Amino acid sequence: MSTYPVMPPRPLEAGDLAPDFDLASTEDVVLMLKDEVPRTPVVLYVFSGPQDEQARADLAELERRRRTLTELRSKILAVSPAPLAELKKLQSDLRLRFPLLADDRGFTKGYGLEPDAGGKSAPPALYLIGSDCRVMWRERPVISLSSALGSVEKQLAGQASSAAGYPRKVINRWVDRWVH
After folding, report:
1. Does residue 5 belong to any structural domain of this protein?
2. What pLDDT, in 10s, does the model give residues 13-54?
3. Report field, pTM of the whole predicted structure over 0.90
4. CATH number assigned to the domain comprising residue 161
5. SS3 106
6. I want to staple 55 with a disulfide (CB 3.0 to 4.6 A). Which of 47, 48, 130, 166 is the partner?
7. Domain count of the chain?
8. Is the link from the previous residue into 99 a cis peptide, with omega within 30 of 0?
């Protein structure tokens, strides 16, 4: 038995390995972070639940910016410890076109979503996770999601595309092969 004190996990910072998860989504599939990030960076919004008014407003803002984030080759995922049925209702109410994930096993604690000592729910957090499964950027707690998403969009726009570095004629040849 160890005599070392148990230390709470430190908050995730840029460069840290993002905790993996496999969670049921409102799309009726299990999503795993390690399966999503190799294809595209993930904009991960972590919130306490549908009753949180800030979270509802933030989710609506994410939906408004979804097209821009998709054009910047990223995927939005939102994770909450709320039950899947509540998240499906929230998704329907807000007309969200990105998946909400139900964390029934405490993965959100790795992202800093733990109630404080008084039992008050933790404020939402926003992370940008890169293809190497490392945190590229984070805001915790989210003060202004609109401002935070502006920073995320700048990070994404600064990334080289997968076609970067190839001459235009090579890219055109690839496209021609795929089309024909």
Report:
1. no
2. 888 999 989 999 999 999 999 999 888 999 999 998 888 899
3. no
4. 3.40.30.10
5. coil
6. 47
7. 1
8. no
Token couple for 67: 């097209």
Three-state SS for 122? coil
Quickly tell me which residue has 């460069």 as its tokens. 15
3 state DSSP class of 93: helix
- What DSSP character marks residue 2? -
Q: How far apart are CA 9 and CA 12, in angstroms?
A: 9
133 within domain boundaries: yes
Which domain range does residue 27 map to? Answer: 22-179
What distance in Å separates the CA atoms of residue 115 and residue 75, rounded to the nearest whole number? 27
Q: In whole angstroms, what is the distance from residue 106 CA to residue 80 CA?
A: 9
Residue corresponding to tokens 């235009």: 168
Which of 97, 148, 157, 92 is closest to 123 using CA atoms? 148
- The answer to whether residue 11 sits within a structural domain is no
